[in-house]
Design a protein that fits this description.
L,D-transpeptidase catalytic domain-like; two-stranded parallel ribbon; alpha/beta; elongated; Muramoyl-pentapeptide Carboxypeptidase, domain 1; disordered N terminus; 339 residues
Length: 339
Amino acid sequence: MRVTWCLVAFLTAVIVMSALSSRINIVSPGSPMRAMGPTPPERAGPEDEEGSRSSHDATFGELPDGCEEWRVLSVKSPPMTGSDVRDLQAYLGDKGFYQGALDGVYGVATADAVRSLQRWLRVPVTGAYDLQTWVEIEGGTPAARAAVPPPEGSVHLRINIDQCRLTVYSDGAVHKSYVVAIGKSETPSPVGEFKVLWKSSGIGGVLGSRWIGLNVPWGMYGIHGTNRPWTVGYMASHGCFRMFNHDVEELYAWVEAGTPVTIEGDISQLRCRDVLRLGSGAQDVVLFQMKIREKGFYDQRADGDFGPATESAVKDMQMFYGFEPTGVTSPDLMRLLGL
């Protein structure tokens, strides 16, 4: 009887794993090729409307960094509210269709602005931010969609947070540049020198058609598509970098696990913790690594991971300045570094 139950459990596990592998295609370090399976839809569909679960939820569980589901926005009673409405109002205002308050309430004024946008896009005028309207916005400009041959040299990505711009370098030369959405002030994007950790073409929903995950040690951050294309180019995300889906699909083919990603931004005013040690991982560790590299004690990437190389650099610095070489920072050491 016990053998029978073990066999049933084993077969159940095989079936579950088989079902999951057919839902998502993942490329990660050590994976020579992506898992085979049906290609998921590249754009959000009706199944991603309010009250349902996206394909991302079905395979990944929690959305990274507080991302929200996409939904059709329309006039209802009580009115629909949320950050997605506020972001849409900001986009409509920037395009000259909306002059009201950015209150995050989808009321008559917002619906009228959407109607004006739909007339301009030459799509059915419904007053609701629906799938067809989303597809037209996501289309971008002809210049942005111009085909570019794949880079032939070594690829390096550089993201400038102040400019909302991601640039692809090939052997050190600019290959192509894209506009991206960055984190809001209350949920900033990470700054540092990271690498592509893994990528997936089976996302869908709020993360668009592609996901390129980064090895940020203090959270799940990545470069991905979006079903809120009006937010691209603004401070609108929860820390990730949103791209138009057609852009991230092009970029996806050019990067692989291990591709360097440098994210530039001003973190000079960040307050560092006095005590950092092996295993610490946060934005202040990036600042600390940059500072000790500037002093000549560290020659590795400023990736926010206080690992053995950072610990060794701290010991060298402590011996140089006459401190006990513990490999753990102290308030006196931080003051000496101006942190």
